[in-house]
UniProtKB/TrEMBL annotation:
One of its GO terms (molecular function) is ATP binding. Keywords: ATP-binding, Kinase, Nucleotide-binding, Serine/threonine-protein kinase, Transferase. InterPro entries: Anti-sigma-factor_SerPK, HATPase_C_sf, HATPase_dom. Residues 12-137 form the Histidine kinase/HSP90-like ATPase domain. It comes from Fodinisporobacter ferrooxydans. It comes from the Bacteria. This is ATP-binding protein.
Length: 156
């Protein structure tokens, strides 16, 4: 049996609102695979957060710096990669240790940053900062279960 392996790639300027174009690209890419709507909703949330992080932290909202989105659906998982022009020396453990808490959100010295990656951490199976050909990217892994609880193959 041959396993389906497919992907899509797109680039976008670092302007607020372009993340919506990436979401449309993702919806169209995922539609033929009949993935559960709740999983697609989680994927869209993850992707939007990744795009916003790339625009803000990786590209400093410079509209001349594009960010790129790559979605790769393999046998039992979707890999989301969002590339930017930022630095690659980001330590995942340091980021996780700096996640804000609900309690800290209501404190006098409230830190309002860091919720996006915390949301990604909750919705995804795994994520990490990577580099490829001098570009930094956030790679997020989402396992794709089929509708009866088992894992599905892409294209089924």
């Amino acid at each position: 049996m041959q396993h389906a392996h497919t992907h899509v790639y797109g680039t976008f300027p670092s302007r607020l609102g372009t993340e919506k174009l990436a979401l449309v690209m993702a919806e169209r890419f995922l539609a033929p695979f009949h993935i559960d709507e709740e999983i697609v909703s989680d994927i869209k949330t993850i992707l939007a957060e990744c795009c916003l992080n790339a625009m803000e932290h990786g590209n400093a909202f410079d509209p001349l710096c594009d960010y790129a989105v790559e979605l790769e659906l393999e046998m039992k998982e979707l890999l989301i990669r969002v590339f930017n022009s930022g630095t690659s020396n980001i330590d995942k453990d340091e980021v996780i240790n700096a996640f804000p808490t609900i309690e800290s959100a209501f404190s006098e010295n409230s830190r309002t940053r860091g919720w996006g990656l915390q949301l990604i951490d909750q919705l995804a199976n795994n994520w990490e900062f990577c580099t490829r050909q001098g570009r930094t990217f956030l790679e997020v892994q989402v396992k794709i279960p089929n509708r009866n609880g088992g894992e599905r193959l892409a294209g089924q």
